[in-house]
Amino acid sequence: MACCCGYSEPIDTERVVVVAPLTMAAPIKVVVTGAAGQIAYSLLYQIASGAVFGPEQPVCLHLLDIAPMMGVLEGVVMELADCALPLLTGVLPTANPEEAFKDVAAAFLVGAMPRREGMERKDLLSANVRIFKEQGQALDKVARKDVKVLVVGNPANTNALICSKYAPSIPKENFTAMTRLDQNRAQSQLAAKIGVPVQDVKNVIIWGNHSSTQFPDASNALVKINGAEKPVPAAINDDEYLKTTFVSTVQKRGAAVIAARKMSSALSAAKAASDHMRDWFLGTGDRWVSMGVVSDGSYGTPRDVVFSFPVTVSNGKWKIVEGLTISDFARQMLDNTGKELAEEKQDALDVCKD
């Protein structure tokens, strides 16, 4: 297998070498797991086109998948070459985790057994925990110690926790789980309800687990109407909607997409992964974003689980938004999703002992 200095295909053929302009930054290595899958198919172009790390940052893609998918991955490598993307300096397809994670600055851990119609998240836990244990060990051995790891594969929060546990030389805060898809869903629902462009709604929060116990919270969200910001609850003026229909729609959106599409929400998940990593690298400005991070007990949540909080990001470091008021309703919701995460953690640790 060739090093990441040009396009490399999984068969022994002539390589196409792409060299970034000298005026740009040095390339960073970025790994995507499950690289032959549906989410990656949408995600890879976004990474390679500059939508994630910026228009001046060249990237070298490491593509990891299982051995039976190498033929499919060969086609993905061809398509990336055919895109003729100036920022893409090389592609390394592989089935070897240590090769894939070598010296990477960012990791999108997408590959996991997918949830199918009728499946519960706990059905995924046993198989996927083993995958993320192995990947944590590989990251610990060969990745950069400042690598930023985003877990997309479900159950994402607990997978991120296990991955971190088996990569003890990498700081815990460098492992995150994706709840940005839920935030994007919530933001879209609120914008449609109020009748404004989606970008005019900000600071909606996803608390807890990326599961049906998550708590989409609009109580601190703001909306721009006629040039002035207004609290979303005042703009909607329907507390019952915000506690019932809004929450349940966001909680069940993934299942609704599966029911309609007969496949999971790959396009929106790829967009959310791009959003998450872009904000982690480039900052959030005046907006809060939702990220699953290792809990320090903030807001009465269980410690040492990966819990989604509102965060701000600057200089590549996330910080939990402090001082928010938690209503009685919110307290109940946070406790419920926290209880699920604590139970998932114990189940996952039991699997790891087997």
From TrEMBL:
The active site is at H210 (proton acceptor). The keyword Oxidoreductase applies. The keyword Methyltransferase does not apply. NAD(+) binds at D65, N128, V152, G153, N154. InterPro entries: L-lactate/malate_DH (IPR001557), Lactate/malate_DH_C (IPR022383), Lactate/malate_DH_N (IPR001236), Lactate_DH/Glyco_Ohase_4_C (IPR015955), Malate_DH_AS (IPR001252), Malate_DH_NAD-dep_euk (IPR011274), Malate_DH_type2 (IPR010945), NAD(P)-bd_dom_sf (IPR036291). Residues 28-175 form the Lactate/malate dehydrogenase N-terminal domain. Its EC number is 1.1.1.37. Keywords: NAD, Oxidoreductase, Tricarboxylic acid cycle. It holds the Pfam family Ldh_1_N. It is an enzyme of class 1 (oxidoreductase). It comes from the Eukaryota. It catalyses: (S)-malate + NAD(+) = oxaloacetate + NADH + H(+). GO terms for biological process: malate metabolic process; tricarboxylic acid cycle. Residues 179-349 form the Lactate/malate dehydrogenase C-terminal domain. Substrate binds at R115, R121, N154, R185. One of its GO terms (molecular function) is L-malate dehydrogenase (NAD+) activity. Belongs to the LDH/MDH superfamily. MDH type 2 family. This is Malate dehydrogenase. It comes from Papilio xuthus (Asian swallowtail butterfly). The lineage of its organism: Eukaryota, Metazoa, Ecdysozoa, Arthropoda, Hexapoda.
